[in-house]
Design a protein that fits this description.
165 residues, alpha+beta, Immunoglobulin-like, five-stranded mixed β-sheet, 10 strands, 33% strand
């Protein structure tokens, strides 16, 4: 178990060192990120989307009740979606897209390293009263999740379901 955690930490830190980073809570990095098709990486749940190819905008709210509204989203495979996420609470929240397993592992790392810095295209860190966004292309069908991985938020149930049909 310790070896698995050490390997996961090494992988996350390795990824963080390989790309530019922004601190958690810096919602401005989403707006300044430039889409570069040469740097897009395929994941188990899709890839960063081209903002010029967005076919649907989905608005979500994050609240201090540790809930997303809506908490269930259905998308068609192949769609490029813009998520506009509003933080109506007084705490920092984030939306991170991923598989259930990856989000759980990342939440565990966030508990151990709450100041961890990273800025991947599948996440938006949003200060109270502000908005963030994610543009994502869902290339694979399946059941995925979105979650707030701020320490304690994931454990309190701040998780949503993403169905790609």
């Amino acid at each position: 178990m310790k070896r698995h955690t050490a390997l996961a930490l090494a992988a996350v830190l390795g990824l963080a060192a390989a790309r530019p980073v922004a601190a958690h809570g810096d919602e401005h990095h989403e707006a300044t990120r430039r889409y570069d098709p040469a740097k897009v990486e395929e994941t188990a749940f899709g890839r960063e989307g081209d903002p010029k190819k967005v076919v649907r905008t989905i608005r979500l709210d994050m609240a201090d009740t540790m809930r997303f509204t809506p908490a269930d989203v259905t998308i068609r495979r192949g769609q490029t979606v813009r998520f506009v996420v509003h933080n109506s609470g007084k705490l920092l929240h984030e939306m991170v897209l991923g598989t259930a397993e990856a989000l759980k592992a990342h939440a565990e790392l966030m508990k151990k390293f709450p100041e961890m810095e990273h800025a991947d295209p599948n996440m938006a860190h949003v200060k109270p009263g502000a908005n963030g966004q994610i543009v994502w292309q869902f290339t694979k069908a399946g059941e995925f999740q979105f979650a707030c991985l701020q320490p304690g938020h994931f454990e309190a149930g701040m998780v949503g379901r993403l169905s790609v049909k």
